[in-house]
Amino acid sequence: MDDFPPHGVIPSLLTPFDAHGNPDLDLLQSEVRLLDASGVPAVCVGGAAGEIAGSTAAEYREICTAVTATTKRPVIAGIYGDSTPETLGLVEAALSAGASALLVAQPHYLFQPATDGLLALFQAIRKNFAAPVIIANTLPFAQLSLDQVRLLVREKAADAICQGPSDMHLLADFLAMEPHVPVFTGIEELMFVAFALGAEGAIVSLASLLPNECLELHDAVRRRDFKQARAIHERLLRIWRALDHPGEFLARIKFAASERNMPVGVARGPFDLLSAHSAAEVQKALAAEGKL
Known about the structure:
Blueprint: E1 8-11, H1 25-38, E2 43-45, H2 57-68, E3 75-79, H3 84-96, E4 101-104, H4 115-128, E5 133-137, H5 146-154, E6 160-163, H6 168-175, E7 183-185, H7 191-197, E8 201-204, H8 206-209, H9 211-222, H10 226-243, H11 249-259, H12 276-288
Parallel strand pairs: 1-8, 2-3, 3-4, 4-5, 5-6, 6-7, 7-8
Helix pairs in contact: 2-3, 3-4, 7-9, 9-10, 10-12, 11-12
């Protein structure tokens, strides 16, 4: 990517699945076309809410191919592997399908690697593949420390950072870190604050649901129109509060998309069930904001 990293708000795609848990590639391509038309600078496939964790390399290649065939914008591939062989296999699948850059999380299932093992993993990616690497520090139960991220950057094993989903202190530390690299926020409800602090942009699932509003928020901050930015932030925050649920987030955000005439299928089981009460909460929040 000659212009890496892309600036601004990057939607983390909501991967559509059918009732059997299989990727719905037609709906995925419809989602990408809609986001493409909104003017987003890039898209991310397989982010934290993309439901790709656990996919085989073959399935991930198929999903990435559907995305890269639909847009000429850069495609960032989220890699959430739990071993070096799995991670390298997913990286190969994504890049062979045309992805432009990688968003790589540390292994997290049951155990997290020691710092030396973490560095060896990222160095293996660098040794075997030629693509920009963004550290995905987006797992709330497996956060990398400032010292670990600084080491990866100093050893030139990573080119940028995406910090989320809730630790704004770390994001502020990364923005002040030396050596400096681009920092993206993955903290959906605090994009306004992150942009004001100097974050390069955001890689968030909320931008797949509300791309225009998220782009307007970023633009308002860049223009230093903080009154407009705060107004957009508050509207997005109220929507986010109705979506942000520990067990129902995937079902809620996909239901919200369908309510906005943006069908993105259903979540993979066991995350696909949504109670009538929860659906009503989401509908109420959307109605209160005029569905944005």
